[in-house]
Design goal:
This protein has about 140 residues and is α+β, with helices and mostly antiparallel strands. It contains 2 helices and 7 strands; from the N terminus they run H-E-E-E-E-E-H-E-E. A hairpin with a 2-residue loop joins strand 1 and strand 2. The longest helix has 27 residues. The radius of gyration is 21 Å and the shape is elongated.
């Protein structure tokens, strides 16, 4: 009876090549994304509330007027995170720090989204992020 092999030597070589190319692409993206100056855009539902320059080396905790119980924290290393929230599941807090272009964090029960975008590339005619339907009467 012939013994079955799950992997051949060539299979392992192909897997290693694919893994190496993937890791190299990820490392390249991280290097390119880190070099770009970044801005954190804070949205309350679909309205852009604030744009915060993350390359200033400033540290502060703040909230937005619409939801004072949700506290964001900006760090000197150019990252931002949800520090406190009155939402039931706290997924936003567990997301941790974000700093690279393309990353985002959200507190969906409170309708707040933080999105990291390249600095200076925002056109006023660009659409804001669309979260979903929002009834202004719910905020009263």
């Amino acid at each position: 009876m012939k013994e079955l092999k799950f992997f051949k030597k060539t299979d392992i070589i192909v897997i290693l090549i694919i893994a190496t190319v993937g890791l190299a692409a990820l490392a390249g993206y991280r290097l390119i994304a880190r070099e770009k100056p970044a801005v954190a855009e804070i949205y309350y539902y679909s309205d852009l509330i604030a744009s915060i320059n993350l390359n200033e080396g400033e540290e502060r905790a703040f909230s937005i007027p619409q939801k004072p119980n949700v506290i964001l924290h900006q760090y000197p290393d150019g990252s931002i995170c949800f520090e406190e929230s009155d939402c039931p599941d706290k997924v936003c807090i567990h997301t941790g720090k974000i700093s690279m272009v393309g990353q985002s964090a959200a507190c969906l029960p409170n309708g707040i989204i933080v999105k990291i975008v390249p600095a200076g590339e925002r056109d006023p005619d660009d659409p804001d992020i669309v979260v979903g339907w929002h009834d202004a009467a719910m905020d009263r």
